[in-house]
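task queued by scheduler; priority normal; single chain, no ligands, no partner chains; default sampling; output format set to structure tokens
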Amino acid sequence: MSKLTQEEVAFYKKNGYFLYDKQLFSAEKLAELTELFEDQLKQKGSKLSDELDTPHFREDRLLNFLLSDEVLDLVEPIIGPNIGLWSSHFICKDPFVGRATPWHEDSAYWKGRVSSFDNIITVWLAIDNSTKENGCMQVIPGTHANGFSEYEKVDGKKNLFSTQIKNMDTSTAVHFELQRGQCSLHDSRIIHGADPNKSEFRRCGYTMRYFSTDTKVFEDKNPNFKVWLARGKDLAGNKYANVE
């Protein structure tokens, strides 16, 4: 069942994002997901809290959320009924020390790994309240139609990445302020970033990323990387972790 109206889908297509201000999961499921995140956080060792990438490779129970109807019913109106799970990532900015996320396009970091970026979407679920004060995500509306930007190097100790888009005009930036359990949707090509967390409150989100299965995932460019068939059928001859 579609969770989005035609008007909301049209807004996403035009602007490259949409804020979903309802609860994505039940209170019980959100509590379970939070517990899984806290477990991952305990196991992270020397990694920083914002580096918990592809946790579903290590924790199968996360697939109960990533492949759930709650999420896929939100994704399908935008990218269609044939859906692959691309990746997931816990991004946690600790109080006072959480690093900035430089302005970037997700697609720039996946260049060469897939055949197309037109139908790759990220669902960003707020595990903690996400506010301007604790470094919520910001996007530049409409930039998903611009193609790849030019990048420059930045300090990797102060930033989540070591590169950022050159000559950014942030005057039209939209802040994604979300309550715990709400989520945002954004196109893989849209320019986005986040300020450092200078507040006393942690800011954790779970990114769940999906692609239309007419997108080819190049196996030779994705060593030791796994994708799942989340809904519908494969259209590009991809290899999925959950399909024999």
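post-processing summary
- Residues 25 and 70 are 7 Å apart (CA to CA).
- The radius of gyration is 17 Å.
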